[in-house]
Structure formats: structure tokens, C-alpha cells
Amino acid sequence: MSDRQVEDLKLQVANLTARLEKLEGENKPAHSKSPAEAMRMILIGPPGAGKGTQAPKIKDKYCVCHLATGDMLRAQVAKKTPLGREAKKIMDQGGLVSDDIMINMIKQELDTNKECQNGFILDGFPRTVAQANGLDDMLQNNNKPLKHAVELQIDDQLLVDRITGRLIHPASGRSYHKVFNPPKDSMKDDVTGEPLIQRSDDNAEALKKRLVTYHDQTAPVVAYYKKAGIWSGIDASKDPGTVWKSMLGVFDSKPQSSSILSKIGLK
């Protein structure tokens, strides 16, 4: 390639970049949203991958709510809300709570929880493609589409090692590990000083069964978000600080809008 051709290419790139920046400006609302307002994400990962460690950091940095659907469901049942009563009736009969109930529960939280005004981290849902579709429809109707689907990836055997030493603070969901991430005071939460517990199903045999179910359920959901263009994978085998830096790298990256790219002939 000649010097002249190289210069022509550079000029074309510069022109396209200028046009892209102009189009991005035209597509911005009158009041630009802050990064926190755009933080709408789901956190995907098997038990022990580090969701309980990373989610509170995301919540604190971006001032968003952390919606762990299992905890939300138990809270709705305990409060005896209409959704909670309906869910309890199904669970008492040995059934699975419907996708509609779960999605309505999430919608109610987004509509009423002040912590969710700047965005949310969704943890534990969706677990099927049907749930992902239903969630997308609800969020699109509220004009709050997902921005990120982050998967914490880790080898199953390392998870077994992690889980058998995991400690939980029941009230907040904060997690620790006897070896990898111990609390400042033995068996006490760093923030409240309340006792930590070890879950009864945090043993090797139970975990291996849970992992089989997790992989069967999650693979199609990951494929769904890859196709949507919002998936990112992070190596969760690293220390929590390194995982956090990788997480920030995902949030700080600037995805290019496919609609904008199509306007300038790049898609």
C-alpha cells in the first residue's frame, strides 16, 4: 500500500469518526444521562463466582439498587403482599413461581424503590430465554432497556473449593470466605458486626448438582444476550480486586450503536 493510499484511508477514518460523533450527539436526549442512570444490568454467574462480592461494589459506586430475585421473593412472601400471597400459594403446592409473577415483582421494585432511580443490578433472573424475553419486553415498555449482561466465568472445581468455605451475612447478602476473603473479625459481618452463617447446601455434593442445573439453564440465556450484543464475560477465578477492575472496564467501554453505524454505512 502506497503512502498516498495510507493517507486517504486515514482521512476516511477521520471523516467517519466525525460523522459518528455528530450522529451520537443528535441521538442524545436533551438532558444527558449520567453513567449511573445508564447502569441497568444483569449479573450472571454460578454460586460462588463472586456475585455477592461484586454486586455491592457496583451498587455503591453507581448508586443503584441490587435486586436479588430470591431475596425479593422471600420478602414479598413475608410482607404478605398480593404478589407474595400468590407466590406462596404456588410454592406451598410444590409449583414454580411463574415468569409473570417474577417480572411483575421486578417491575414493582423498579417503580417503587427509590434506590432504583439511577439503575439496577439484577441477580438471579432471568434463568431461561423465555424469562429474558419477558424481562426485555417489560423494560422496553418502561423505556429502561438493559445495558449490560455480565457473566462471571470460573471453573467448576475452583467453585467447589470456594463454596465450601463461603460465609454469608443473611440480612444484606454480603459474602465472605474463610480463606480467600475472610471477615475482619471471625464469623462477623464487617459492616454491622452481626453473625455470619454457612448455608446448609454449601457442600461439595450439593454444589455439583446445582452446577449441572446452572449450566443447563444458563447456556441459552448467555447465547441470548450475546446475540443482543450486551454480553461481556469476566474471568472470575482472579482475586476480587482484579475482577472489579475488569468489571469497571466493561462499564467504561463505549459500545457503538448498531443503528448509528448503519447510518454511515459501516453495518
From TrEMBL:
Entry keyword set: ATP-binding, Cytoplasm, Kinase, Mitochondrion, Nucleotide-binding, Transferase
Record-linked Gene3D superfamilies: P-loop containing nucleotide triphosphate hydrolases (3.40.50.300)
Binding site for ATP: G48, A49, G50, K51, G52, T53, R166, S175, Y176, K238
Keyword match Transferase: yes
E.C. code: 2.7.4.3
Sequence positions that bind AMP: T69, R74, G95, L96, V97, G124, F125, P126, R127, Q131, R199, R210
Catalytic function, reaction form: AMP + ATP = 2 ADP
Source superkingdom: Eukaryota
Domain Adenylate kinase active site lid: 166-201
Region LID, annotated ranges: 165-202
Statement: the UniProt record of this protein carries the keyword Nucleotide-binding: yes
PROSITE patterns for the chain: ADENYLATE_KINASE
Pfam families per UniProt: ADK (PF00406), ADK_lid (PF05191)
InterPro entries found in the cross-reference section: Adenyl_kin_sub, Adenylat/UMP-CMP_kin, Adenylat_kinase_CS, Adenylate_kinase_lid-dom, AK2, P-loop_NTPase
Gene Ontology molecular function, alphabetical: AMP kinase activity
Location in the cell: Cytoplasm, Cytosol; Mitochondrion intermembrane space
Stretches for region NMPbind: 68-97
Free-text function comment from the UniProt entry: Catalyzes the reversible transfer of the terminal phosphate group between ATP and AMP. Plays an important role in cellular energy homeostasis and in adenine nucleotide metabolism. Adenylate kinase activity is critical for regulation of the phosphate utilization and the AMP de novo biosynthesis pathways.
Family label: Belongs to the adenylate kinase family. AK2 subfamily.
PANTHER family cross-referenced by the UniProt entry: NUCLEOTIDE KINASE
Assembly mode: Monomer.
UniProt free text on domains: Consists of three domains, a large central CORE domain and two small peripheral domains, NMPbind and LID, which undergo movements during catalysis. The LID domain closes over the site of phosphoryl transfer upon ATP binding. Assembling and dissambling the active center during each catalytic cycle provides an effective means to prevent ATP hydrolysis.
Stated name of the protein: Adenylate kinase
Source organism: Knufia obscura
Recorded name of the encoding gene: ADK1
